[in-house]
Amino acid sequence: MTEQSTYFPDGTPIEVILEGGPDDLPRAHRTGRSSLATRKLKIQHRNGYEHFELVDGELVPAVFRWIMRTKIAE
Fold first, then answer.
1. Distance CA 70, CA 19 (A)
2. Domain for residue 11, yes or no?
3. Does 39 map to a domain?
4. Buried (b) or exposed (e) across 4-39, using 16+ Cβ within 10 A?
5. Cα gap 66→22, rounded to integer Å
6. Is residue 55 part of a domain?
């Protein structure tokens, strides 16, 4: 999981849950612990990146919703 959030500048890992995205995104990427510095996560998957954005609300756990997919430039 690519991480980063101004909410925890000391790098404290928090629980993260991903919503949406491709069905074949590995289960290991769906939940986990991460230190955050931005409201967005970018996860490499197949030949591109899945982009998730923090859903407003509680940060424990921090819920990120899928917003788009981009391809890796060749």
1. 17
2. no
3. yes
4. ebeebeeeeebebebeebeeebeeebeeeebbbeeb
5. 9
6. yes
User: Rounded to an integer, what distance in angstroms lies between the CA atom of residue 12 and that of residue 70?
Assistant: 29
Helix spans in the chain (H): 27-30
Distance, CA of 43 to CA of 57 (rounded, Å): 22
Instruction: Please state, in angstroms and rounded to a whole number, the distance separating the CA atoms of residues 74 and 64.
Output: 28
Question: Residue type at 23?
Answer: D
pLDDT (tens digit, 9 = 90+) per residue, 9-66?
A: 566 777 888 899 999 988 777 767 666 777 888 888 999 999 999 898 767 788 899 9
Q: Quick one: pLDDT at residue 8?
A: 57
Q: Which residue's entry shows tokens 């996560």?
A: 41
**How many domains does the chain fold into?**
1
